[in-house]
Automatic annotation (TrEMBL):
GO molecular function, a single term: cytoskeletal motor activity
InterPro entries: FliE
A cellular component term, taken from the record's GO annotations: bacterial-type flagellum basal body
Keyword Secreted part of the UniProt annotation: no
Iron-sulfur keyword on record: no
Protein name in the entry: Flagellar hook-basal body complex protein FliE
Protein source organism: Rhizorhabdus histidinilytica
Record family assignment: Belongs to the FliE family.
């Protein structure tokens, strides 16, 4: 069993304070989107002053850009210009996840539209 003395306590206190400040810095920094980094699809929905149509149009445009970028990097890999298969697969997965999210939003919108249309007047 270790004895507790003032130097050990001060060392533990300093370690805790350093960890606390590192956690505060990490919490204060904006979290990157795992799909596309800092400028992601979520940035299109973060603007509260825009209307729904422009927000949806912006999200679809970003998904289209992700798919185009994934296609370009895939073609680059097939030509032998790029050798980083991990970057190619990551870009393809990002485009796929973005497309799947857009597809799910479309499905929910269609479902809501059908529900509204079937409501009695």
């Amino acid at each position: 069993m270790t004895t507790v003395n003032t130097s050990n306590l001060l060392a533990m206190r300093n370690a805790i304070l350093q960890q606390n400040s590192a956690l505060q810095k990490a919490a204060a920094a904006p979290a990157p989107n795992p799909l596309t980094g800092a400028g992601a699809i979520g940035s299109a929905t973060a603007a509260p002053d825009g209307n729904f149509a422009s927000t949806l149009r912006g999200a679809i445009t970003e998904v289209n850009a992700m798919q185009a970028k994934a296609g370009a990097i895939t073609e680059s890999y097939e030509r032998g210009e790029t050798t980083d298969i991990a970057a190619v697969m990551l870009q393809r997965e990002q485009a796929s996840v973005g497309f799947q999210a857009t597809l799910q939003v479309r499905n929910k919108l269609l479902s809501a539209y059908k529900d509204i249309m079937s409501m009695p007047v």
